[in-house]
Backbone:
């Protein structure tokens, strides 16, 4: 290492001579941090998304490498969020990858004290059978005056404000077709 | 949002967040925007930097208050008094924007001679029936239109307010040609004069006495709001769930809407009402509703008695001789039925309308919970990204209801409390739920996250934004689109060939969605195209809702979203950078209706079509081009001239005059006075919250008489004056959010970063309250109501100032509500367990933002001792199932031989479900132990065998 390189290695020298007089940027950078690149630069792809928390709907850029989300940043293109995210939006990579995330179907049998495992196919079959049965048991053809009801009161559903419009559309369409009217979401809560 | 729907015609925020920057004054009330919508708040700060005055009105000094010019502390539950006093000042001092008011509101319309207001009836409006707890709205109508009263209110045997919530996209029906008016505003029956009388008692002195706001501070708010409105200036009102989660929330919004109309702030840049919604797509989930009383596009769910045929259904929406775009309700409805049932829906079979399921009462989520507790009615329950064990009011009732089901399907990202209640609910600790005896079968299906599926959210300014899929969902995780498509497919396969008429609709539903990929996922774009709608003869996507037809030749899954796929382009996926566009950024996403960003923007121009002022120009009539032009897409027919007047006998769109900016309203005007569409009064009136330490000083009537109650032993309401016992619960509690957590915590308490940022449940109390109750900063304390006991760490702070009300000091306690005990990296008691179920009669939303309580130092008792403590308070506080339950306070004071129990029983279907009159009487007249019988811990229904006699308590001072 030459003397010149040695002196230039001093942050205070760089601060005095460079364009970072306050020493909060390039002047303070170590050799190690200089060699680092952001995760976002190494991404294979970037998906344009929207934050899933509150109703401001901030733009998000979702960085993906090797089929896994590596980082989520605010999208500066969004006219109303302009690249910003709050603590929740900034933490949303953990929402996707965090240790809390459940990825297996769980089943609690009546009177059981613990969960057991169940494969998705079996769970779907069991749910279909129970839905058909509850629908039948709670069916009402008409009211006391003979007005048509064509409905089941045996099934209820809650949720929707965190779901996509397309999902809510199918939920309401299917429940209506099966006669289940007790469909609700957070808008009421 | 019927408060907005009834006033303006559509239940959505009226402009976009960027437009806040155009305001001259921003009033934030019932919202902690800096904390709960932090990124949107940048537009408030931008306005402030340009000199806009920012006022924050809230019970608690928050991050929003810290950044406002003026912070105004207010007693929770009294906002209508404050707004009413400002309205009163505008009316008596004639500070309104008179040309705007005369041209664009119903101020000069005459109201029926039969109408009597709160001045005549001491807090009630005419038409109230204490037996059914509901109003007959016939007398509220315009003069000459008395026969157009809401018939449903007359025939309903309980509060039936489905129509209230359905006004998200349009006002209520009124015959526009029968309207009589007096442009001098002198006739005592004009809306103007009716309002003047109604608001006369809302004075600055009343504000001081009821809200605790000093008169000089009141002057400052009123003058800032009024003087920054008018021809040259505009002000915007921002509210959120601090207004909506109340027993009279719709009327708060109405009060704000009235003021904004009087000041001429609607449809103009920097004006409007910014309703900040709480979830990524809560606007979307009412537009395309997962709500029992609505179909997509705010069409009503068919009602068994009112809609016995398609023709009857359509007539009830179109009304007789009504103006506006609801005149095409037949096209919207039939296009929806074609989207639902495809070729099976034909003109000959009335598009299968008869086979549709029908509602006939309140089937809302809280009514469902009461049915679950009772048992034998609801067998299966789907929870889709929602955690009612923590997030819904009265969590105890929620959990005990779930423990009484046959089965549940819980679909979520994490293992939430609503999935694990059978092993770790607080009721397991108290012995009310015993896992070995709880029969509920639970399926937990992990859900795909927002980056693992594609689709649209509709955010707070009605903007649909498309999300691209970034990665595949791991393991068993699936989207709701996948789950419901395959649930439907499998059910249809199992029932294929059935000749049972009950299965007809399920077999006829159009369910042929192509799937792709390893997981067999349907395409969200296909569904969005179906929502947009097709010309069924050509297969072309429709350009917008004006192309919909009533002859079955078009389909559209949600008429207000028609246009989102215009030109075969996913308009919601457009992402032209905001900096390359004008402020409203029309090429970013797509806003309903028709990509219009500022609703009612015809009102930004005067009746002749010229901007009211150059400074506030937005949309104006260009005579040379013969069309409306400007910086937004006109919320008006593009080529209808300002001078257009409808021919006699015209209805629907043709009847909208060139100076009718509120095109969804049946008379084309903004409604200062709402003859229809709001079930608890045509004008807002102040009532105390359902639980209050104070007597109402505005009227004899204590609470909203039409409030909706669920009387159940798990849901007893504290007495308020004049009933005895309120002193046992002398403090007021309110809840809200933190920036670092989200609702019931499923998306935040489990995340390491967020759990570290806000690691524990806490309560904020004033130094005065801490001294009075012996609470220590950072120590423990517990809050007690008749429903629950909740412990939390104490934060002693002057952010909560004690307020002087009626010559005594009231202390308010604040808590965030994100915690639960079952899962996550930070756990705590469930704050919403404290709440009672008293609902707004329009929208069935519970009252989270005001309740009474006691607070004591130290940790709460454990196990069964919790129930002993609650019981002790109930006995001392004279809490019964009839306390706080009487509809009309005057009848309580002068019972004329009717016991309080009899009075509380009025409207029995509204006050508890499933009980016969005899059962109700037994139950209402006694105190009973909250605990279930030993050995039968799942038996939570009211059983007279365990009840012991309790005298009917008397009134305060008697």
Residues:
């Amino acid at each position: 290492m030459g003397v010149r390189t040695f002196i230039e290695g001093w942050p205070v020298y760089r601060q005095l001579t460079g364009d970072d007089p306050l020493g909060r940027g390039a002047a303070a950078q170590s050799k190690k941090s200089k060699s680092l690149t952001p995760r976002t630069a190494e991404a294979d792809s970037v998906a344009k998304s929207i934050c899933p928390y509150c109703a401001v709907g901030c733009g998000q850029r979702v960085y993906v490498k090797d089929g896994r989300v590596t980082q989520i940043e605010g999208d500066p293109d969004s006219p109303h969020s302009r690249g910003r995210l709050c603590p929740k939006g900034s933490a949303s990579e953990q929402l996707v990858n965090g240790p809390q995330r459940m990825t297996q179907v769980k089943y609690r049998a009546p009177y059981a004290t613990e969960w057991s495992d169940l494969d998705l196919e079996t769970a779907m079959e069991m749910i279909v059978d129970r839905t058909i049965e509850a629908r039948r048991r709670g069916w009402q053809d008409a009211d006391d005056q003979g007005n048509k009801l064509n409905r089941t009161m045996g099934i209820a559903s809650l949720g929707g404000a965190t779901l996509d419009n397309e999902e809510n559309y199918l939920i309401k369409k299917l429940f209506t077709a099966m006669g289940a009217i007790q469909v609700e979401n957070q808008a009421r809560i | 949002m019927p408060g907005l729907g009834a006033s303006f015609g559509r239940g959505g925020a009226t402009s976009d967040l960027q437009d806040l920057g155009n305001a001259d004054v921003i009033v934030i009330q019932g919202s902690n925007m800096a904390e709960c919508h932090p990124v949107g708040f940048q537009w408030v700060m931008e306005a402030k930097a340009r000199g806009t005055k920012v006022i924050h009105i809230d019970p608690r000094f928050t991050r929003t208050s810290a950044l406002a010019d003026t912070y105004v502390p207010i007693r929770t539950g009294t906002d209508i008094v404050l707004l009413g006093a400002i309205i009163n000042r505008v009316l008596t001092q004639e500070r309104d924007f008179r040309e705007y008011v005369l041209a664009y509101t119903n101020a000069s319309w005459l109201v029926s001679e039969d109408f009597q207001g709160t001045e005549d009836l001491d807090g009630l409006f005419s038409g109230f029936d204490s037996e059914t707890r509901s109003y007959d709205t016939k007398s509220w109508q315009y003069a000459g239109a008395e026969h157009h009263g809401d018939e449903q209110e007359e025939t309903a045997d309980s509060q039936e307010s489905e129509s209230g919530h359905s006004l998200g996209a349009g006002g209520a029906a009124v015959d526009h040609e029968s309207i009589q008016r007096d442009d001098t505003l002198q006739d005592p029956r004009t809306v103007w004069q009716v309002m003047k009388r109604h608001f006369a008692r809302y004075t600055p002195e009343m504000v001081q006495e009821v809200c605790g706001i000093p008169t000089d501070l009141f002057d400052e708010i009123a003058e800032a709001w009024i003087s920054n409105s008018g021809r040259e200036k505009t002000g915007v009102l921002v509210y959120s769930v601090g207004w909506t989660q109340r027993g009279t929330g719709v009327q708060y919004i109405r009060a704000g809407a009235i003021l904004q109309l009087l000041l001429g702030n609607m449809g103009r840049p920097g004006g409007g009402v910014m309703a900040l919604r709480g979830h990524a797509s809560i606007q979307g989930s009412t537009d395309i509703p997962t709500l029992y009383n609505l179909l997509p596009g705010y069409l009503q769910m068919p009602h068994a008695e009112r809609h016995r045929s398609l023709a009857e259904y359509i007539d009830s929406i179109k009304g007789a001789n009504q103006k506006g775009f609801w005149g095409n309700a037949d096209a919207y409805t039939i296009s929806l039925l074609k989207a639902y049932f495809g070729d099976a829906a034909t003109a000959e079979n009335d598009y299968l309308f008869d086979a549709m399921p029908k509602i006939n009462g309140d089937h809302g989520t809280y009514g469902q919970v009461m049915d679950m507790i009772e048992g034998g009615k609801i067998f299966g329950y789907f929870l889709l990204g929602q955690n009612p064990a923590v997030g819904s009011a009265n969590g105890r009732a929620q959990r005990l209801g779930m423990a009484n089901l046959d089965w549940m399907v819980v679909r979520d990202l994490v293992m939430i409390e609503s999935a694990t209640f059978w092993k770790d609910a607080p009721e397991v600790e108290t012995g009310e739920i015993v896992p070995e005896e709880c029969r509920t079968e639970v399926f937990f299906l992990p859900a795909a996250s927002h980056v693992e599926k594609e689709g649209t959210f509709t955010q707070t300014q009605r903007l649909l934004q498309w999300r691209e899929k970034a990665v595949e969902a791991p393991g068993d995780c699936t989207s709701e689109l996948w789950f419901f498509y395959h649930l439907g497919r499998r059910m249809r396969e199992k029932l294929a060939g059935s000749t049972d008429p009950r299965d007809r609709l399920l077999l006829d539903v159009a369910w042929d969605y192509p799937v792709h990929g390893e997981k067999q996922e349907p395409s969200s774009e296909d569904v969005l195209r179906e929502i947009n709608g097709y010309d069924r003869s050509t297969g072309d996507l429709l350009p917008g809702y004006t192309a919909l037809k009533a002859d079955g030749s078009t389909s559209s899954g949600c008429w207000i979203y028609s246009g989102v796929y215009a030109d075969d382009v996913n308009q919601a996926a457009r992402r032209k950078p905001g900096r390359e566009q004008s402020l409203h950024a029309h090429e970013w996403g797509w806003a309903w209706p028709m990509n219009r960003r500022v609703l009612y923007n015809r009102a930004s121009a005067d009746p002749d079509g010229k901007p009211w002022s150059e400074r506030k120009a937005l949309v104006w009539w260009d005579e040379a081009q013969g069309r409306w032009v400007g910086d937004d897409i006109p919320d008006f027919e593009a080529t209808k001239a300002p001078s257009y007047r409808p021919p006699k006998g015209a209805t629907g769109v043709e009847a909208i005059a060139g100076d009718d900016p509120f095109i969804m309203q049946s008379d084309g005007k903004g409604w200062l006075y709402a003859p229809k569409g709001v079930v608890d009064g045509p004008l807002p009136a102040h009532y105390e919250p359902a639980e209050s330490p104070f007597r109402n000083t505005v009227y004899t009537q204590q609470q909203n008489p039409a409030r909706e109650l669920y009387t159940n032993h798990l849901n007893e309401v504290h007495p308020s004056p004049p009933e005895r016992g309120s002193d046992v619960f002398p403090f007021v509690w309110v809840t809200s959010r933190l920036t670092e957590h989200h609702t019931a915590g499923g998306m935040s308490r489990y995340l390491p970063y967020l759990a570290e940022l806000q690691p524990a449940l806490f309560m904020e109390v004033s130094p005065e309250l801490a001294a009075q109750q012996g609470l220590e900063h950072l120590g423990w304390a517990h809050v007690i109501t008749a429903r629950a006991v909740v412990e939390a760490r104490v934060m002693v702070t002057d952010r909560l100032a004690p307020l002087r009300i009626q010559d005594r000091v009231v202390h308010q306690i604040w808590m965030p509500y994100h915690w639960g005990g079952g899962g996550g990296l930070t756990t705590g008691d469930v704050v919403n367990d404290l709440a009672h179920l008293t609902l707004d009669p329009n929208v069935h939303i519970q009252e989270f933002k005001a309740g009474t309580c006691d607070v004591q130092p130290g940790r709460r008792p454990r196990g069964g001792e919790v129930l002993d403590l609650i019981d002790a308070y109930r006995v001392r506080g004279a809490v019964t199932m009839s306390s706080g339950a009487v509809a009309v306070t005057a009848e309580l004071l002068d019972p004329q031989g009717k016991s309080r129990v009899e009075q509380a029983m009025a409207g029995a279907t509204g006050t508890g479900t499933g009980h016969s009159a005899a059962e109700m009487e037994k139950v209402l007249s006694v105190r009973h132990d909250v605990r279930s019988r030993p050995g039968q811990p799942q038996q939570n229904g009211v059983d007279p065998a365990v009840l012991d006699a309790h005298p009917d308590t008397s009134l305060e001072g008697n």
Notes: The radius of gyration of chain A is 28 Å. Residues 102-131 of chain A form one domain. Chain A has four domains: 3-35, 39-97, 102-131, 138-189. Chain A has a mean pLDDT of 94.
